[in-house]
Specification:
By secondary structure, this protein is of the alpha+beta class. The protein is 28% helix and 31% strand. It contains 15 helices and 33 strands. A hairpin with a 2-residue loop joins strand 14 and strand 15. The structure holds guanosine-5',3'-tetraphosphate.
Amino acid sequence: MDTPDGDGGQSTVFRSLDEEIRRRRTFAIISHPDAGKTTLTEKLLLYGGAIHMAGSIKSRKATRYATSDWMEIERQRGISVTSSALQFEFDGFSINLLDTPGHKDFSEDTYRTLEAADSVIMLLDGAKGIEPQTLKLFEVARLRNLPIVTFINKVDRESLPPLTLLSEIEKNLSIRALPRNWPIGMGRTFRGVFDLVERKAHLYVAQDHGSARSEEEVTDISDSRFSSILSGIGIEDEFWEEVDLLDSDLGLWDQEAFRKGHITPVFFGSALNNFGVELFLKAFLRLSPSPGAHMSDTGPINPETPQFSGFIFKIQANMDPQHRDRFAFLRVCSGQFRKGMTAKNVNTGQEVRLSKTLQFMGQRREAVDVAYPGDIIGLHDPGIFHIGDTLTEKGDFVYEGIPHFSPEFFVRVQIEDPLKRKHLRKGLLQIAEEGAIQMFTLDPEGERDVLVGAVGQLQFEVLKFRLEHEYKVRAKLEPMNYDRVRWITGPLDLISNLSSTLDTLLVFDREKSPVALFRNEWALRYVVEKYPSLGFHGTSPRT
Ligand code: G4P
């Protein structure tokens, strides 16, 4: 099936479904806060022409709060807690960049986002190497067997020696790190990067903090300018010794081992100054895979299957307080999506017409007419979608479930104004449907107190902020001294005994299923041993 594709209004390009799939790259950047993810994202968008002047994401950071004011919390805390998907074109590729929150309290959100990615960029700060959040996110990427490409940033600043950085990656992450380029100098003497594969030096001309595409000079090894730069910064011997050493590693490159996440190609550069960014982007697009088959309950589904299918990995309400809208983000896995088409939500059995759909291009939101495997589209959600739902044009399969994490922190939600109880319920329910928190009640009918569980404390701050700003409810969140949760299955009379057990609280989830909260490991073990006929599950048996 050939499809017309607007080419900036100039001409119309016809591509087959196969070609559309082959030119798609869908990936996420994982990093520790402050490593430069916002800066790198901005530079990638700059090269993709999605923005014209770098610095706009920072200013977007500022203006975004005006349009989505709960993110104010991000600004106050100086952290990134939201994730979004951005689409742009570069060098013939159609790129979907999934943004993942850097803060550790949002790793559940990251996990879901990585379900929608085909590869990952691991971004490191050259002065810091592997930091705690990099490690945690890396482990999530590894669980999914995603290919990982490493970008070592900020080499224009004093950094760890490149060889030390490589061995740190290998030691901490148990992955083989094979450099594709090598920095020419570091810190104040940084002059560019040497492409180990093409054997060319990319020398850069500094600009105003890289606000436009960088000027670069590419020279051959034999070029006298290159050797005079090396001797000028006094590293000639050391540089060639290192390159000789690395040359023997180049032969170890194995595309299959990379695809499985056993080898990571490593690039050096400076996102802020655009040093090495274009070289990196081009190499990344060639190394990283196009969308492959996705696993379903009936086996793998190939992206080339002509019928559209995909799954929802994220729900976000109130992205724009002017519209109070809610979007479900869907990753297209097969076939062609067409605006207005009807698809079946296999999880609920409902037929849905997909007419209000959005894609995010840099700062702009745009309506989507067609989309292909690898693309992320935002579906307007009047409350009919759930995280993990599979949508298909034809066929009754369900994509492999997105796992839920067990909450480890709990609060009791109280409100000052009892007349706002309905608003509170609505707010909690919507936020719980986004998957950011889990909601429990003390009775199955949900009439009594509401408790909320979350994977990280920061979720509570976001919850409080959103309740106040989006639902106009001032809530008090009273910490509860429980840190373990189990969903319980078994005879009801036995389950009800748990309510009188020490250090254990019996509650109910949104589906009215019984759940026990425990104060400590000891309380959990006591109950498990005392009630061998009950089943204890870390997540809801329905999910
Ligand atoms: P994040 O999203 O990963 O949290 O990091 P972000 O891009 O916001 O970058 C964190 C800081 O690191 C910023 O400085 C940014 O300018 C700086 N930075 C990013 N890439 C490079 C680089 O290649 N070299 C150098 N030297 N610095 C880099 P800031 O002072 O926190 O913010 P700003 O005042 O620059 O906006």
